[in-house]
Amino acid sequence: MAGRGYSIFDTGIGRCGIAWGDSGVVGVQLPEAREIDTRRRLFQLYPDARELRSPENVEIAIEGIVTLLRGGDSDLSDVALDITGIPAFNQRVYAFARSIPRGETRTYAEVASALRASGAVYSVAQAIGRNPFMIIVPCHRVLEAGHYADKISPNGGAISKRRLLSIEGNHPTASKTLFEVLLPVAPPRPHN
Questions:
Q1: Is 16 a catalytic residue?
Q2: Cys bridge to 24: 31, 52, 82, 156, which one at CB 3.0-4.6 A?
């Protein structure tokens, strides 16, 4: 068994990290504010990984991530992922997210419905928030009901979904206003 490895690489949005094991990619880390923070996050997530030369499958993933973050089109569907320890429902969510074409988005509810689990909108949101395979599993293409695109998983570093989508040429709704978050929408008042 070769064990786990990781690599840091340059992209159009900063230095990203990728970790892998014998079965495939175990995680992708988008850039933090500083490279040392990206490395620290990788170490926290994968303390047994050593900085190594990337195997071929990982090199393909890195090239695809770099291309996508440059605004190009890249197919990452063949990149092997190590899904050991990933709950079965999350695996289904990630498989669906990988099928969403570049430039398109789906809502949590649409993903839940497509998985024939329409009551599982919250579970879809949780799975997306825990996605360890940033960009390879394009969780940035799965949005809240109003197509708000602010949140991203902890592996997202300092990058927002909105920024990733704009790189892909998609411009989702800006963030919710404070009033939308704190105050319920009032029903329309009847006219006299």
A1: no
A2: 82
